[in-house]
């Protein structure tokens, strides 16, 4: 039986690489899945041979090549492409134990690294350490195993955390656990060096220093595993930690024994006795721990041999000192500590540091695909561009126009001016507005839009109700399953808390949207008759507006002054129209720029300058995105300058209008005509506002339907995963019960009345991410602002 520990493989299970990869490429890239059939097949073939499980030196190269491909794959694909990887715990005592299943390529990479370390450790353990060459090879493999574990800890585990909730990370990939294994591999490598030194009859002082380092390394491994969580420690075999304790005391005793011989040779007989006393005490501790905990017999034999030698030498040293030397025996604190000498280190295989060096002739998998970080950067840029265009250009331009319209309406402009300029007939501007409503069949269009909005509102609410029905159904199944089988997992009302909270947010948004819809409906009911009047023929519409006999050709002084103010006012209104046209043209040009704007070539150029194989993220392309978005600054600046000019003109319009009103004769016929024209103009403004509100409402509900469909699908996936997990737990408990019953019958022990044994406390993900994961996130729409009937401007 060997006196070293080796790391077992993490057993893996088959996964559906072709299906998940094809779906991801089709749904998230611009490429066709068929373009990557060869890459997918290569990935599948490499995984079959590179995921461990076979003890042979040739498998190292296959595993390193597979790890290298995973590094390049993660540069092209996100960690979660809806591809499930399943691995059992490396130290699972029960072959039927539930594996941990995660949708994470990063988890696959970490597990592959773990198995590479396990393979190195097992190759070291299989060496014949009775020969010098065997010791050399064993020490080298142990140092490689330590190097792989160090690389796992520094390179893979930190990247696993952001994609997997900490409570779902397997305990054998816990940081403390991995570091403990690394120190163990170094301790066993150093032990091989010590064994060679003993065999080659090196000086006792040097052998003592080598043994002291062996003891220290075993102790560091022991301390690291003791810092780990309880479930991490409990997953180890029962004799694992005692083995580390035994080795720690054993080699501390061996170090003191060898240093004692060195003291004897230097005639320091008192120091020799003290070191032998320390060695005896530590050897006894090691022997007692090993016997009590069932450590391997080879380890017990080693300790017993050392204890016998130490006790024999201690008896001789005390006898000689009592009879011959008569030196004082110092206290333990009175002798110098043994200086440790390390001859080993964590050696990372070159293929891990430089993954490209182990890629074969088949080339890099998905080598021609644009990296997912670059794709995400393009998507983020397009999203930011759309937001900037809408929030900084389109909406402000509309707000500036609405602001001017509101002020003109409050001043009864241009109706009062047109009533004076055209005492009979209809102003051309009003005729154009009426023609627009007639061509659009305005009232009918609004009725159809209102029905569509109401229908979509019911539809999206139904989707949300269906999602909650799925969660309710899962909760009922969970309650029924708990009545049949005790389950150590959170009940549904705890496990689905975040989904339920998200549902409440969605429902609040829909409630606010329904309130906004009602505001729009009431506004339509209030203005329906007036808007409908604008659909009449020109003759009928003209009959609604009273005529006036006031003319611009009057000779009175007051009339002359009115003409002057009217012309000034007309000039200001035309200047305001020029600003509006310039603003509208600026918006059109910005939208045209956005439509033709393609950042892809610049992102591709930036990606080409990055080191191949690194995991790209969108953050790496922020400078490119910022530079491209800066192209829209001139449009934003143009809007700002236009608003300043508009404010100046509006201020002049207000003051000129006041003078115009004072100079105008207060003819009731003129006043009636002004009010009629203003009322029709206001009806047109409300028509455009209602149409705009309804357009926004339709877009809102269509977007919300997509978001809630994704949410419903997330609930379905989560519910299916919970059901699958419940079935697995039930089968596991059933098999455990059958095994217990068989054991009871074979020993003829009466049936226990205590509660049934509990299964492993580890939570199983069954392929579904935690609810706090970003996997469940969709682009959420903000709650629509409350609308008031009296406002003439309404935004959803």
From TrEMBL:
One of its GO terms (cellular component) is endosome. It holds the Pfam family ALIX_LYPXL_bnd. InterPro entries: ALIX_V_dom, BRO1_dom, BRO1_sf. It comes from the Eukaryota. Residues 475-497, 739-796 are annotated as: Disordered. Residues 3-404 form the BRO1 domain. Belongs to the palA/RIM20 family. This is BRO1 domain-containing protein.
């Amino acid at each position: 039986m060997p006196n070293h520990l080796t790391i077992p493989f993490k057993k893996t299970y088959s996964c559906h690489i072709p299906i998940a990869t094809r779906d991801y490429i089709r749904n998230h890239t611009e490429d066709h899945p068929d373009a990557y059939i060869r890459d997918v097949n290569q990935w599948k073939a490499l995984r079959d041979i590179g995921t461990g499980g076979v003890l042979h030196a040739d498998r190292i190269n296959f595993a390193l090549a597979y790890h290298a491909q995973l590094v390049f794959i993660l540069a092209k694909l996100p960690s979660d492409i809806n591809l499930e990887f399943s691995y059992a715990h490396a130290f699972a005592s029960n072959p039927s134990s539930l594996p941990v299943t995660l949708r994470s390529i990063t988890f696959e990479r970490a597990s592959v690294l773990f198995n590479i370390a396990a393979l190195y450790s097992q190759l070291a353990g299989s060496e014949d350490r009775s020969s010098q060459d065997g010791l050399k090879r064993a020490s080298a493999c142990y140092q490689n195993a330590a190097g792989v574990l160090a690389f796992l800890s520094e390179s893979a585990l930190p990247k696993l955390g952001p994609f997997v909730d900490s409570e779902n990370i397997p305990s054998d990939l816990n940081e403390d656990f991995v570091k403990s294994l690394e120190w163990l591999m170094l301790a066993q490598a150093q032990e091989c060096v010590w064994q060679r030194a003993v065999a080659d009859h090196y000086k006792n002082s040097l052998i003592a220093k080598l043994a002291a380092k062996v003891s220290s390394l075993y102790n560091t491994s022991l301390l690291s595993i003791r810092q780990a969580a309880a479930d991490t420690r409990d997953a180890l075999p029962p004799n694992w930690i005692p083995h580390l304790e035994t080795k720690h005391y054993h080699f501390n005793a061996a170090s003191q024994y060898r240093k004692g011989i060195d003291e004897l040779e230097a005639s320091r007989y008192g120091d020799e006795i003290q070191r032998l006393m320390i060695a005896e005490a530590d050897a006894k501790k090691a022997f007692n721990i090993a016997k009590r905990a069932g450590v391997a017999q080879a380890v017990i034999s080693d300790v017993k041999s050392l204890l016998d030698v130490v006790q024999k030498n201690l008896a001789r040293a005390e006898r000689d000192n009592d009879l011959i030397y008569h030196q004082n025996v110092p206290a333990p604190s009175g002798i110098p500590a043994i200086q440790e000498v390390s001859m080993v280190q964590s050696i990372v295989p070159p293929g891990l540091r430089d993954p490209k060096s182990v890629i074969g002739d088949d080339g890099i998998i998905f080598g021609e695909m644009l990296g997912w970080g670059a794709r995400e950067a393009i998507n983020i840029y397009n999203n930011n561009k759309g937001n900037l265009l809408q929030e900084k250009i389109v909406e402000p331009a509309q707000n500036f126009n609405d602001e001017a319209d509101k002020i003109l309406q409050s001043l009864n402009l241009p109706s009062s001016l047109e009533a004076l300029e055209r005492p009979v007939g209809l102003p051309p501007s009003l005729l154009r507005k009426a023609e627009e409503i007639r061509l659009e069949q305005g009232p009918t269009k609004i009725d159809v839009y209102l029905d569509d909005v109401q229908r979509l509102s019911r539809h999206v609410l139904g989707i949300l109700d269906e999602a909650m029905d799925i969660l309710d159904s899962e909760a009922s199944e969970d309650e029924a399953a708990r009545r049949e089988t005790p389950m150590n997992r959170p009940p549904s009302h705890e496990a689905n808390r975040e989904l339920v909270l998200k549902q409440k947010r969605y429902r609040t948004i829909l409630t606010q949207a329904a309130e906004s819809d009602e505001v729009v409906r009431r506004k339509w009911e209030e203005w329906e008759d007036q808007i409908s009047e604008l659909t009449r023929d020109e003759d009928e519409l003209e009959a609604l507006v009273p005529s006036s006999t006031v003319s611009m050709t009057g000779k009175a002084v007051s009339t002359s002054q009115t003409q002057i103010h009217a012309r000034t006012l007309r000039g200001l209104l035309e200047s305001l129209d020029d600003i509006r046209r310039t603003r509208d043209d600026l918006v059109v040009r910005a939208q045209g720029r956005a439509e033709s704007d393609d950042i892809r070539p610049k992102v591709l150029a930036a990606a080409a300058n990055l080191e191949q194989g690194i995991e790209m993220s969108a953050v790496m392309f922020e400078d490119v995105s910022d530079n491209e978005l800066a192209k829209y600054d001139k449009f934003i600046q143009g809007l700002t300058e236009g608003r300043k000019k508009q404010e100046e003109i509006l201020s002049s319009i207000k003051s000129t209008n006041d003078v115009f009103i004072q100079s105008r004769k207060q003819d009731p016929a003129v006043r009636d005509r002004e009010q009629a024209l203003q009322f029709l103009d206001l009806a047109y403004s409300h028509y455009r506002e209602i149409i705009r509100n309804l357009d926004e409402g339709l877009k809102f509900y269509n977007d919300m339907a997509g978001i809630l469909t994704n949410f419903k699908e997330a609930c379905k996936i989560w519910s299916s995963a919970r059901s699958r997990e419940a079935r697995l737990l039930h089968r596991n408990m059933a098999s455990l019960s059958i095994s217990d019953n068989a054991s009871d019958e074979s020993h003829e022990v009466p049936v226990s009345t205590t509660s049934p044994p509990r299964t492993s406390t580890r939570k199983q993900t069954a392929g579904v991410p935690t609810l706090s994961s970003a996997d469940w996130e969709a682009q959420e729409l903000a709650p629509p602002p409350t609308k008031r009937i009296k406002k003439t401007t309404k935004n959803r």
